[in-house]
Known about the structure:
A: 4-stranded antiparallel sheet, globular, B: two-stranded antiparallel sheet
Amino acid sequence: MKYLLQIYPGTAADDVEQMPADERQAIVEEYLAIGRSPEVIGGEQLQPIETATTVRVENGEALLTDGPFVDAKEHVGGFCLVQADDLDAALDIAARMPAARMGGAVEVRPLVER
Amino acid sequence: MLLEQVFREEWGRVLANLFGFLGDFDLAEEAAQDAFATAAERWPRDGTPPNPGAWLTVTARNRAIDRLRRDRVLAEKTRLLEVPEAVEDEVDETTFPDERLELIFTCCHPSLGLEAQVALTLRALGGLRTEEIARAFLVPEETMKRRLSRAKRKVRDAGIPFRVPAGHLLPERLAAVLAVVYLIFNEGYGGRGDLASEALRLGAALAELMPDEPEVHGLQALMLLDDARRDARFEDDELVLLADQDRSRWDTAKIARGREALDRALALQGGGPYVIQAAIASLHMDDPHDWPEIAALYGELARLTGSPVVELNRAIAVAEAEGPAAGLALVDRVGLDGYQYFHSTRADLLRRLDRADEASTEYERALELAHTEHERRFLERRIAEVRR
């Protein structure tokens, strides 16, 4: 099965900013190592939420708004696409994400199989 | 054999096997129900087969296979790549693996909410009907129906595994399973006896399937020892405390089974929270009580759980072992202001220290917090006594 791991940095983002360069690099390395696991089939880090643009189409016309669709406190900071045997295997990978232990969280969603 | 009894004993096994085979709850349930309906029709006429469980499983599997052959769309939703041929003629010889353990770990997967875990476990392993589960948890049937179908859908669509978790996950996942069983038991202990029996059945199945896990035996011991006193807890509809219970109304066979389970847990070097609670329950049934030992076990349990409620119980045991003043000193360190039993315990110790005015105030505080009519009446009696 395929799963999307949505990474919510929570307070981790600020903490990482404050870190000395070598510690910050270590966190990046952790993400890169997860990215190299055989189960991981894709993933990226996103630019901050302020860079988002939301598009709606009404009467054939695209309406653009600055910012996110959902006005929430927390936003996805990155994602990871995983091919795993079952939910436990996907949860294992999610639990290895630095954000999950640094005040953020990882939301695991199964993909619709076609 | 009565069909009702076969249903109770075999439902979990039949459903577990079908779920393992099909990977879909609704399909597995339908096929299992079909098989039980067929049995109800045929067994009275043709006699009960020598291996009822295997008969039911084969019949249910064949029903499911028939359905899947007719309905390709449905077949694609299951975990079967190829729909096999129906098995014939070997019904009585066939034995199927017991997959109830896999099923209970699926039902109690922590990605499901606790309420969903409980409902699904009762439905899948216990074979309770939706309306029965709804009634037991005092929610409308519609709500329970939605809760169950949402849980079943998540099991399928999120790929919740059907297996006993790997070693590093096992302790935490087993704790979740035991918590669900104990919660079912406690719902029943509050008066709905059916659920307590259901929990005891689940506990017995777990003990059979995981014979080397001390906490499994510990939980079963704890439930049996509590359950043995069910009839003695009420007299003329009034709550009776352990010390005042009529021991002749205790179920001695259940106590013996409970102590046997406790011995097994201890022989396996068990020292987890359920084993300790069972050991305490067992000591509570001795006359006279070994209060120093009970206090020591509460101390160990408090260390494991960090629970102030356990600390409160330790204080009660210390009061018995060393006198009410020592107990009161401990109670005052706990600081569970606003918790009914904190106030009733404090009240009781103050009463025994002849500090009647303070005792009366504490009893009144407990009375404000009491949930049940039984408890309110009990506290009112106490208040009348200290004011005399």
